Amino acid sequence: MHPPLVELHLHIEGTLEPELIFDLAARNKVTLPYADLADLKSRYAFTDLQSFLNLYYANMAVLLTEQDFTDLTRAYLRRASAAGVRHAEIFVDPQAHTVRGVPLAACINGVAAALRTSESDFGLSSALIVTFLRDRPAAEAFDMLTELVAMNAPIVGIGLDSAEVGHPPVDFIEVFDLAHAHGLKCVAHAGEEGPPEYVWQAVQLLEVSRVDHGIRSLEDPLLVDYLVQHNIPLTVCPLSNVRLRVVDTLADHPLPAMLERGLTVTINSDDPAYFGGYIDDNFTAITDAFALSADQLATLATNAIHAAFITDARRAELLAEVAAWCAATD
Ligand code: ADE
Ligand code: ZN
């Protein structure tokens, strides 16, 4: 069994299960380019990040109304609660919806409505992080962040995602400066497919508190030293890395080397509907692949609690839950 879980790297659109795609298409009278469910499911063999993103963005065509975003988020919360998730920080990609004509408010308010009752309905705390698409203009992200601030959107921070190579963090300095000025937390995908240089830029130019993925950091020993010294957490997503061919097999994943080097690693699911498993499945997979001990699992869980954007009181509660799990597991 795994310890109480904290999820810090989860794209809500990446929880859009094939069945829900068909349900929402029927509700919204959207014609899908798939013959049936089996046809859709046959398209989940990815060759790289872009091949996944193509399907991920295409399937968003079924998300049109505020209710769609609420239903999607509630489905995730239900699944997460069953998996033992105690706190979740959720990414949403508003530009992927506004470019299709979906109002920003429908997307944000729809997800936020579900998160508002995550405690009472599903027994877990939650927070929302808006992620900007790095393969779209930085000026568009800047304008959207300005709009989010003006509408007092219930977000804890911002992030950066989508096609990495060729879209370095340095292009988004103004966006992240604006976020910092408004007291928002900052994270960024870096070192997933992109080089260690992008991780350097994320931490030094964007001043992020966490790096999403970051597994290619291992190629640069000085960068590893920097991340360790500054205690910058990495939100690692093992099943995602396998399915997007960042590593050949789970056995080749650098997770053990990352732990060995003293990096603050956390385990997350990224886009569970696309990558064959939720956060509990990621924990099970790495436990089996690397014969992790209860102590190592507790370290991963504790790392995530320290890396989470939560109050000291909530942090103390979650740490106590992990301590209770350790006592029961001994
Ligand atoms: N958007 C959704 N999942 C992503 C990933 N793994 N990398 C970059 N952008 C993403
Ligand atoms: Zn991601």
UniProtKB/TrEMBL annotation:
<keyword id="KW-0862">Zinc</keyword>
<dbReference type="GO" id="GO:0009117">
    <property type="term" value="P:nucleotide metabolic process"/>
</dbReference>
<feature type="site" description="Important for catalytic activity">
    <location>
        <position position="213"/>
    </location>
</feature>
<dbReference type="Pfam" id="PF00962">
    <property type="entry name" value="A_deaminase"/>
</dbReference>
<dbReference type="InterPro" id="IPR001365">
    <property type="entry name" value="A_deaminase_dom"/>
</dbReference>
<feature type="active site" description="Proton donor">
    <location>
        <position position="192"/>
    </location>
</feature>
<comment type="similarity">
    <text>Belongs to the metallo-dependent hydrolases superfamily. Adenosine and AMP deaminases family. Adenine deaminase type 2 subfamily.</text>
</comment>
<dbReference type="GO" id="GO:0008270">
    <property type="term" value="F:zinc ion binding"/>
</dbReference>
<dbReference type="GO" id="GO:0006146">
    <property type="term" value="P:adenine catabolic process"/>
</dbReference>
<feature type="binding site">
    <location>
        <position position="270"/>
    </location>
    <ligand>
        <name>Zn(2+)</name>
    </ligand>
</feature>
<dbReference type="GO" id="GO:0043103">
    <property type="term" value="P:hypoxanthine salvage"/>
</dbReference>
<dbReference type="InterPro" id="IPR028892">
    <property type="entry name" value="ADE"/>
</dbReference>
<feature type="binding site">
    <location>
        <position position="271"/>
    </location>
    <ligand>
        <name>substrate</name>
    </ligand>
</feature>
<feature type="domain" description="Adenosine deaminase">
    <location>
        <begin position="4"/>
        <end position="325"/>
    </location>
</feature>
<keyword id="KW-0378">Hydrolase</keyword>
<feature type="binding site">
    <location>
        <position position="189"/>
    </location>
    <ligand>
        <name>Zn(2+)</name>
    </ligand>
</feature>
<comment type="function">
    <text>Catalyzes the hydrolytic deamination of adenine to hypoxanthine. Plays an important role in the purine salvage pathway and in nitrogen catabolism.</text>
</comment>
<dbReference type="InterPro" id="IPR032466">
    <property type="entry name" value="Metal_Hydrolase"/>
</dbReference>
<dbReference type="InterPro" id="IPR006330">
    <property type="entry name" value="Ado/ade_deaminase"/>
</dbReference>
<keyword id="KW-0479">Metal-binding</keyword>
<dbReference type="GO" id="GO:0000034">
    <property type="term" value="F:adenine deaminase activity"/>
</dbReference>
<keyword id="KW-0546">Nucleotide metabolism</keyword>
<dbReference type="GO" id="GO:0005829">
    <property type="term" value="C:cytosol"/>
</dbReference>
<feature type="binding site">
    <location>
        <position position="9"/>
    </location>
    <ligand>
        <name>Zn(2+)</name>
    </ligand>
</feature>
<feature type="binding site">
    <location>
        <position position="11"/>
    </location>
    <ligand>
        <name>Zn(2+)</name>
    </ligand>
</feature>
<protein>
    <recommendedName>
        <fullName>Adenine deaminase</fullName>
        <ecNumber>3.5.4.2</ecNumber>
    </recommendedName>
</protein>
